[in-house]
Design a protein that fits this description.
heterodimer; A: alpha/beta; nine-stranded mixed β-sheet; two-stranded antiparallel sheet; 6 helices; about 30% strand; B: about 300 residues; binds flavin-adenine dinucleotide; binds adenosine monophosphate
Amino acid sequence: MEFLVCISKAPDTTTRIAFTEGDTRFNEEGVQFIVNPYDEWYALVRALELVEAGGGKVVIASVGGADVEPILRKALAIGAHKAVRIDADPQDAGQVAAELAAYAGDKGFNAILCGKETIDHNGSAVPAMLAEHLDVPCIALCTSLEYDGEKAILTRETASGIEKVAVSGPFVLSAAKGMAEQRIPNMRGIMAARTKPLSVVPASGAAAGTSIERFALPAEKAGVKLVDAENPAELVRLLREEAKVI
Amino acid sequence: MNIAFIQTKGGQASKASLEAAGFAAVIGDTVAVVSGELNGDGGLGAVGVSRVLQGPAGLDDGQLAKLISAAAEKEGATVVVCAQDHLGKAVAGRVAVRLGAGLIAGVTAAPEGGSYTRNVFSGKATARVTGTTGSLVVTTMPNAIGMPEAQGGTATVEAFSPDLGASRVEVLEAAQPSGGDRAPLPEAELVVSAGRGLKGPENWGIIEDLADSIGATTACSRPVSDIGWRPHHEHVGQTGIAIRPNLYIAVGISGAIQHLAGVNGSKVIVVINKDPEAPFFKAADYGIVGDAFDVVPKLTAAFQAL
Ligand SMILES: Cc1cc2nc3c(=O)[nH]c(=O)nc-3n(C[C@H](O)[C@H](O)[C@H](O)COP(=O)(O)OP(=O)(O)OC[C@H]3O[C@@H](n4cnc5c(N)ncnc54)[C@H](O)[C@@H]3O)c2cc1C
Ligand SMILES: Nc1ncnc2c1ncn2[C@@H]1O[C@H](COP(=O)(O)O)[C@@H](O)[C@H]1O
């Protein structure tokens, strides 16, 4: 079995967000970068569990500049076998999906695992776009995956709850919480990662279909209005009459 | 011309889909596409849709994308809108690829000219985005745009069955409700959430009672679902579900930055915490400093007295 896991670089979850160049670019200065949590905790770990049990290989791929290589090394330290960096500056989900598809198209992966969303772009957009390029099903928001090399049984979240589905043949999924547990890389993994293959492949030159005009920070809150613990009825009154949400 | 993709439940358009249709109707003339059963026009005429194209039921994500794209091509649509809900996340991107359109996902405000506002960095910032190709697929964040005003019109319904190929996804077990008959978290208008301050799963009765008193959906912080006090699907925050209810009541939650990232789109935040220094108070509109076990039952009683 061979799986491709799509890995995105993301700012650490505690990052304070700031912008530069007239609020048109994220200010990366002093920012710690991590593997996007959904890609690492859920997609990558589940793919590793499946090859540990059934044999095979986990390839990871990221669309990005040289700055994503430390992130790829971290994912190699967790256990991935081989990393690929697709050399393009990611502009939007459409471009990223097209680049991933151009790489994965002829490699015959059994399945491609993505995270359910990036914590910086929050689009939940790449997996479905990638699946359409490859003409395979996209199972979005998966919370479990069983796979024997031929048939996959997946659980996904739907508007009305959870649903169990089966897919034969290759597919793309987006991983949500529940699929696997986070793994902390150990010393051996970190040492091994240094010598695992990390190759750089040229971009196919896919274009973005959208462009960011300007970023903005949300307005500050006016400050909390405290209500006495003995008088919750006053809170109810405020919610009705002032905030008008009840 | 615009296309709105509509999810139905019991023949009626879902709330998130009506928001998407209203959003499309603000941009221009809108034709809706549905898959499966529909009662009358499903409530779509009232939000400004003129015609509904009704496709077959039971389609997978690939077939739905073919249905929507065929409708867009037939109508010469330049904008396709759908809700950024579970199904939207599996289908919208496919439609964009099929149409060669740009995709702007999770829009949170009415369009301004050709520019769309969406949340980025897990709600810590917003971005204004434009399309750079001739056509666009836009998905709307549930409970962000607001329900369109009813206009009292009726849409005409036409059968629509382009070639969709065979389904490649076999549904083994149909959807099991995860949260009883409460609204699903991403769409919920009222949410009551609790954290580690509740001490143990056996104490969630007071949270359920508070939620029931106002018809709210329940949620929790990440550690609470990690230790199994509550199911995973209740976990809100940067690594759980992002929500934007009208009212978010947080009980015994400290307000870590990762938690706030998933709830800071809420219109009004109420924090109940026994520690006056809890960081959550800085992000709150209203607060009560007190012991949850004392305050919550009293608050429930006050809501019930309405
Ligand atoms: C990469 C990463 C991602 C994360 N993602 C998320 C996420 O998506 N969502 C999330 O929630 N967290 C997330 N976290 C965890 C986050 O950092 C916090 O640890 C977590 O939110 C704390 O949960 P809590 O507030 O329930 O518990 P605590 O921080 O332990 O807070 C409990 C609170 O309850 C109060 N309390 C105690 N007893 C009472 C009482 N009797 N009455 C009233 N109040 C009481 C205390 O004063 C305290 O403020 C993430 C962390 C990391 C590192
Ligand atoms: N630059 C990238 N390189 C590789 N995979 C990516 C990239 N960006 C996003 N992805 C994958 O697509 C998923 C969804 O991303 P998004 O559409 O941005 O929310 C992520 O969780 C990743 O698995």
